[in-house]
Every structure is written in structure tokens, then in C-alpha cells.
Amino acid sequence: MITETPYGLARPTMDDARAAIHRVHAGDGPQVWSRLLKATGLTGDEGDGLERMLAAMHDADPTSRLCALALRIRITSHTQLAAAARVIPPSSPLSPSSSGEML
Amino acid sequence: MSTDLFDRLGVPERIREIAGYDLFDPDLRTSLDAIAQRSAGLLEAPVSLVSMVLDMSQFIIGSHGVAGWVAEAQGTPAEWALCTHTVLAGEPYCVVDGRTDPRHADNPFLRMTGLRSYLGVPLIGRGGHALGAHCVIDARPRIFSDVDLAVLNDGAEKSMKLLDAYRLR
Question: Where is the GAF domain (chain B) (predicted)?
């Protein structure tokens, strides 16, 4: 499990995917989540099932696809910033804030 | 994670309205990039975005001046995105100097990028929801003018007209 939180950014988990589906589908959330679990063969408790779940969300309805996209943006941000933090710690004077290379 | 913020952004009707557009069409992207480039040029700003603010992330659908991890991710976490404030306010949102503004001084996005000032206007959908924003971001402290605001409002209007042509049936 990746526990690094560069700039306070936590890597999304399966729990975050479940919360997102429940949030944007409101009353239909539990049913949509159950269908996604069935489609992926996951129980929802797996620590390593997020990629499969994101693929299923992407292929599901347009709203679930947006949830997958939002999670993917956070995952990519986390991956990129964690990698940068390993090379240059955020507190370093050479961190991206002073190099201006990030945007 | 910022559950309260995600709940405020993740209103089902608003997210469903965003999902009603084909945001992944490459021609739409090209056209929105051109709008961002125009706004950046007219306002002499290094960065301009057209974005949708989802429940947990800002999704950039048109841009000028974006590189690095933001370009790789095609967005930013919602809690770091200044456009989140524009969407939640439902009206133009301005930051003169994020480094000294107590609302934004701790924002990692501003710290990382060195960007300091922001002006954004909301993209209002047919259902009346603020779906996203069109903005410019500058590396210097900046007081934006009414003319700057008019340029962004024009860009936002053009963006919504374009998006309307990419509604999913």
C-alpha cells in the first residue's frame, strides 16, 4: 500500500470509489455499486482492486465514468507528485514551487 | 479527503448534466484550447483553462500554458483548484495574490507552480448549475479589470455554445 501523501494528497482507494458512486448516484448508489462489484467480481474489500473497478466504472453509465475520471486525475496527480517528492522533498528549496516547472 | 467539499460538488443533478456532454471529443478539445489561447493572449496571462469541476477533481477540457503533472493528469484535485471556488460561488472569482491571500496561501497548487493570481468565470449549464469555469492564472500579483472579466465572459459563452454542440443524445 502506498502511504505517501505528497502535499497532503492521499492516493485514492476502493473506499473512495464506493463513496463517489454513492455520492453522485444518490438513492441509486448502492444498486449501481452492487452492479459494478458484480461486473468486476470484486467484494469491495480488496486492497488492490481499484484499477479493475475504475475500468468497470469507465465502461458503465456516463456519470460513473466521470467518477472514474475524477479518481484517475487524483491517482495520476499522486503518482507524479510522489515521484517528484522522492527526488526533491516538498520542503526543499529545489522543490517544484521554486523551479516553476510544474505548469 | 475533503468529504464535505466533494459532497457539495457531487450534487447528482450537476454531475449528470456534466455527463451529458461528450467531453472526450478531440475536435471539442481543439476548439476549447483555441478559446483558452485567445483569453490568455488578450489578458497577457501565461495560463488559461476551460474546465469542468467534478466531485473530486477539476477536469481540464481546454487549456493554454499547461505542462508537467497537471497536463499529465488532465486536471487537479478539486480541493486545490481555484475553479472550484468559482463553481461553488456561481459567479466570477478573483485572487489578486494567492501568496498573501489567507484563503489560498497554503494551496499546494499555487506553491508548486509559482502562480499567484486568478480570475475565473463559471460555465453555467442549461439546468442552471455551474458546471465548470473559464479562467486565467498569472505568475504575478494582479488586479483584474472589467475588460479582463468581459474577455473571460465572452470565452465562457463561446465555450458553452461549443459544448452544446457536443451534447450526448
Answer: 27-153
